[in-house]
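Researcher: Please predict.
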Amino acid sequence: MGGRRDVPAKLRSRFEEAGALLEEARRILKTRRRDVEKELTSAEREDLTKGLDDLEAAMSTEPFVAPLFEKAHSRAERLVGEHLSRWRKGEIREYAESIAIAVGVALLLRVFVIEAFKIPSSSMVPTLMVGDHIFVNKFKYGPLLPFTDSRLFSDLPPERGDVIVFKYPQNPEQDFIKRVIAAPGDRLEIVDGRPIINGWLVPHCHVGTFAQEGEGRKESELYIEYLQERAYFTLHNRPPSDTTCSTHRDCTAEGMSCFSGICGQDHKEYTSKAGEVWVLGDNRDNSHDSRAWNEGRGGGVPFDNIKGRAMVVFITFGPQQNILERLLVDVMGKPRLPSSNAHLQGALDKCLKDMPKQTIPPAP
């Protein structure tokens, strides 16, 4: 009780009330000083000040004297009620102000710092599952100014490998989430879902056959991809070829063509413009991303469309998902397998252990 151990049990609530009364009265006398001087006579002010001083003295007297405290408390309550009641807050007002402050802080956090998003599609499986609810760091690339598409800081672009939430360039009312692959100025090629940045093939490691639970069991090939000193999952409907080549003839036996030194069937080439990044979904064959925009010609994400970087899964309500298993999954952290694919853990550990030394692409 205010650092005291000798306050009788029956007076403890009164002692707390007295402390709150002193704090409230001192605050009113400080913040409403001019009004108090105008409304109260000097005698009333002196009487009130003495009553408060007497109560404070009774609360700090050694040893504690119960009758003295009760008398001082009653007198101070009467004086505060008589002279300061017009400036005191009612209980309803106290609650209303507390709620208003809490709502205001929450809105400011949502606008400038953190916002929650729900994952509606499988384009980022298995990094993010359908039904995951995530927090997004909106401050990472500089906060957006309210009611505008401009940032307070314009020199904090996303890095390759970042998972970002952004406004879909062809429909700004719709939010997308993808992984940044190419930075401004990069020459990007994609062969069967594998990115080649400025002529450098992004390395990957085969983990195994991944089973997606849900409406029917679907199997895909799971890989770890290494980019910008990060390792993350990618999923492919069929294994990309690792066969090296120098001409198209080197790939004819597999029914493929030669693109930038590897065999493949599907090949696209782009250049990322200044002020934008190019993005891919981790589920490479089931993602509407930079490759498909603008009627298949491709397109980047302008910096001003970016809302923030994905942080953590705080809960999930997806089909066949284990809520506890997905709780607090770090989106940008070490790749984690769902328990339904735990048999791949050994291969995953080996891929992470064998991370190549070169994971940063050359300059454009």
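Model: The longest helix spans residues 91-112.
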